[in-house]
Amino acid sequence: MTCSLTDTQVDGLHTNVFLPDTAPRSVLIIRTPYDAAAYRAEAHAWVRRGIAVVTQDVRGRHRSRGRFRPFENEGADGLATLQWVASRSWAGAPVILYGTSYSAHCAVETAIAAAETGVDVGGVSVAVPALGLGETARNIDGCFYLQSRVGWWLEHGEGPESPGAAIPDGLLDTLPVADIGRRVTPPISAWERVIRAERRDCERGAEVSRLRCPLLAVGGMADWFAQDTVDLWTSWGGPAALVMGPWDHSLRGSDRARRMESWIDDVCAGTPTTGAQVLGLPGGTVDLTRWPSTEASTGLPGGRFHADPTDPFPSMAHGADLSEAAARLDCLVLDLPNRSAALIGTPTVRVHPTDGAGHWGALLAIRRRDGRLEQTAHGMSTHTTIHLTPVAAHLDTGESMVLILSAHSFPRHARDLQSRNDHLAGTETRAVLREVQSVTLDMPA
């Protein structure tokens, strides 16, 4: 199937339209800050499947006019683009708002804006969604994502192009964290806005609960935004499908295009898919109608450990071997009772300390038969309840689980200074003895 390409402007936003040589069976809209031209190969692949594609540089990026202000105005600009597409002669098929990471934010905000104005949306397909400024700056328990936020703003910046700058050595050690924005070249002028950003989970949950169009959400257990993907699916008001697997933010190996094409076929047929699929476990795909709740509580003993912000407990990647980290003196290692072979859901840790002040971190690991202590979930909280990242794990015979408590998870998260100073504005640090009376671990049933 041949493809025609048109470059145009929609309200000052550079837009590419890729059309098949027959009437499209659906239309994808992709709005991105990462250069719409980079989607040409993918757009041609969709056109070969009879699907039209509209790609667009968001305001202030690449060939679009204006100023780039990340996570602002994407609903309004997306709605204008959606209305423009709906007015084209070739757009009689369902229009799908489609995006990965920041582009997923664009898609969700456009769907919300469309619902508020009565504009029809055929469906929304998102992957590893970066849902907002606050959601990318802090985890659900209020801890600041230091490494990823510094990295993203240095790589992509605030101008029309992405400078691609790496994080300079030692920058993440900077105190106060609030000074990082002006200690780099070029400065991050929006840094204060980033560190002050708050999550909008309740507001967004209410907004998407009113949507009635179908949703496909794809996420990875090793992705930064795994829980946000699950929560978006859980809150969605229309027919919603979730696919989670052992992937990171790149979704490499997820076979996402095939899954999405099958979902588009169902949407066009008026029978959109619902429910969740969890992939990557030895027994094959697990089908769910809801995300498992934490219903089984286990009481664990307490203990004590020293914590020093000048030598913080390190953050580790999903699947990393924690054996060396677990031998450090600034953590508490607790063996868990044996449990069933499969574990799917989002565990919660409740720490009962002698002194409740301070941040608390937790890692869930599997003691594998080959001797590795494999990290399967992590969490960091500004208070004593820690919501770990989603888990999809399998324990073989003879394997067991371990919970590791700490005071830090650096450089993934900004450090607790332990001096009663604000962890983003303060400079004074203090080493302390952390004392834990007991721990409650709530696991998915």
Automatic annotation (TrEMBL):
Keywords noted in UniProt: Hydrolase
Keyword Disulfide bond: no
Record-linked Pfam families: Peptidase_S15
Superkingdom per UniProt: Bacteria
GO MF: hydrolase activity
InterPro entries referenced in this protein's UniProt entry, alphabetically: AB_hydrolase_fold, CocE/Ser_esterase, Xaa-Pro-like_dom
Domain annotation Xaa-Pro dipeptidyl-peptidase-like: ranges: 12-250
Protein name: CocE/NonD family hydrolase
